[in-house]
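$ ./design --mode recover --in tokens.txt
reading tokens...
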């Protein structure tokens, strides 16, 4: 998972990090343990996000999907509301798995 100090796990199902409207954050999602447990390998991924968030760039290396997220320019948002980003991977054996993290715009 991403850097622990950034995340609020008070709702274990919805890890949430604060993001300033003017910042860009690097977020790694580590799939290695899950891939090993499922005895499969990474084939592709898709990042799904909600407005006002924007994915600036993304990459994958050795089972870790890393993306940069920011609040889109001129986007309207509700301060304090949580907005999701889902990382969906597809594996070589056709399994599909999602992990969703949330960002609270401050």
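writing sequence...
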């Amino acid at each position: 998972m991403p850097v622990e100090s950034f995340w609020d796990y008070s709702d274990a199902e919805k890890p949430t990090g604060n993001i300033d409207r003017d910042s860009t954050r690097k977020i790694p999602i580590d799939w290695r343990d899950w891939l090993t447990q499922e005895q499969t390998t990474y084939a592709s991924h898709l990042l799904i996000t909600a407005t006002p968030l924007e994915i600036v760039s993304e990459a994958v290396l050795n089972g870790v999907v890393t993306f940069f997220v920011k609040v889109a320019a001129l986007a309207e948002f509700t301060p304090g509301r949580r907005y999701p980003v889902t990382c969906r991977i597809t594996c070589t054996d056709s399994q599909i798995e999602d992990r969703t993290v949330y960002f609270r715009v401050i």
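exit 0
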